[in-house]
Amino acid sequence: MEKEHVAAMFDDIAPKYDFLNHFLSLGIDKLWRKKLVKLLKKQLPTNVLDIATGTGDLALTIYKCAKPEKIIGVDISEQMLQYGREKIEKKNLQNIITLQYGDSENLDFADNSFDAVTVAFGVRNFENLEKGLSEMCRVLKPGGMVYILEFTMPKCFPFKQLYHFYFFKVLPLIGRLFSGNNHAYSYLPQSVEQFPHNKAMLNKLNDAGFNGTKYVILTCGIAAIYVGTRI
After folding, report:
1. For the domain 3-153+195-230, what is the CATH code?
2. Of 204, 202, 210, 46, whose CA–CA distance to 142 is shortest?
3. pTM greater than the 0.90 cutoff
4. DSSP state, 127?
5. For 194, which of 126, 164, 172, 229 is 20 to 30 Å away at the CA?
6. pLDDT profile of the chain (231 residues), mean per 10
């Protein structure tokens, strides 16, 4: 999907985004973010770039658990960013966490700027995935690491069939009901289904310049965390 349409879609659902994320996943999305941060914490990064930061949930979790000196979150949805800034100001963390407009495929940062780059549920929305991954690699310092949390599709019977029914039938209906947007929560399962999963995603990371790539499957294959190191 073109990034202008993605931005408009997320602007529209921003008021209900956090609630629906936690409600539709039964709160499991919080555990997935904590798992990502547990991996990141081992690296002891001092500055982190959170791409597709949305309302800043991952950025806040990173600070709470890993305590880097600086976190910058970027997103193309100004409405999502505004909700995120309000959350950060309530916690008085605006001197540590900064949220700003940013295009993932044309990052406004110099080469070798960050110890770590994170993305939660954002890379499947990139208009050009390869360019976005290459930009992450560019802004990382040599030896810096990328951590990507993204949905996948379960493969084991009967969980695959049950999840497929929920993801394609139930979730869009609930999403439309609460958000008032007829497209956003139908787009979600479609974008996940079309996204490269597991080894295919590792190949994308390798092609973008990352080394030592691996993935960790979460909750019976509903999601995965992809990790790579800049050469």
Report:
1. 3.40.50.150
2. 210
3. yes
4. S
5. 229
6. 79 82 85 97 97 97 97 97 97 98 96 98 95 98 98 88 88 80 78 92 98 96 96 88
